Amino acid sequence: MTVEVLAPHDVQTTINFFKPTNDETPYNYVKTPEGIPSTNIGSDVQHVVVHDIRGKEDTVGLDKTGFQFVTYKSVEKDFVDEEVIKTKYYAEVEDILKKYAGAKRVAIFHHTIKWSLVDGVIPAKGVRGPVVTTCPCRPNLRRCPAIDRVYRYLSDDAERLLKVVFASSMPIANPIANLPLAVADYRTINPEKDLVSARIITPDREATYITVRYNPTQRWYFLANQTPDEVTLIKCYDSDEDKARLSPHSAFNCDVTSLEDAPNRHSIEVGALVFDIE
Questions:
Q1: CA-based diameter of the chain, in Å?
Q2: Per DSSP, what are the bridge partners of residue 251?
Q3: In Å, how far from its chain's centre is CA 53?
Q4: Rounded distance, CA 211 to CA 196, Å?
Q5: What pTM, to 2 d.p., does this model score?
Q6: 3-state SS string over 68-109?
Q7: Antiparallel, parallel or unpaired: β 220-222 and 41-52
Q8: pLDDT tens digits for 85-137?
Q9: Is the C-alpha dihedral spanning 144, 65, 101, 250 positive or negative?
Q10: CA distance 64 to 201
Q11: Measured between alpha carbons, how far is 208 from 201 in angstroms, rounded to an integer?
Q12: Contact at 8 Å (CB) between 129 and 264?
């Protein structure tokens, strides 16, 4: 067996991958009906190496690997005022996507503030801890409410106009030491075998997302000690089949025993639709 030699900041860790518990279509209930299991998705915990891309950021790119790291100094620092986030920070995300993704028009449809848990408790109301599973990239875009509106109003032109769905992630206040974000190189993903469509069911709607089977060919990366001036851009969908179409992503446990006073993870993630016309 070949043992992978780790670079100084590469991390040997575990990631939770898709594991079916029965032959039904994979699903998750947000509010579970009585007498029905909340999910039929198990957890396949696999040991993986997450490679530090620090100093080699120019070797990856949105159209090559499905993710990219860019430097951008936000004027917003606190991220506690919803209106300020939606006015100032959304405008900054639009600028980033126009500059680095070639977007002509950007429509942001959500944002999430994420904290790592402190003794099992989320330290602020209304925010949630990072999900330590593989990414919620949506393959069936007609089932996503934000994109459903695009099809509703643009009809046959929607497929042509909607180019890319993006997520952007950026630390708040401090570099990320706990639960950093790992992103997978699309070129190492086997879409036919590795990507599994699953249903997420709420009381008033149903959507689909992608979960990921483990494959030893997959290569995972992160940006060690990512600062608030460094933004991770992640593709969740691209209509161009000749380019990287998505990048699965997952928070992962990182050994921070040498950083006893390391702050807990605090970050913001933004979802956006990108159009190729004004």
A1: 55
A2: 181
A3: 17
A4: 5
A5: 0.83
A6: EEEECCCCCCCCCCHHHHHHHHHHHHHHHHHHHCCCCEEEEE
A7: parallel
A8: 999 999 999 999 999 998 888 888 888 887 765 554 444 444 333 332 343 33
A9: positive
A10: 33
A11: 9
A12: no
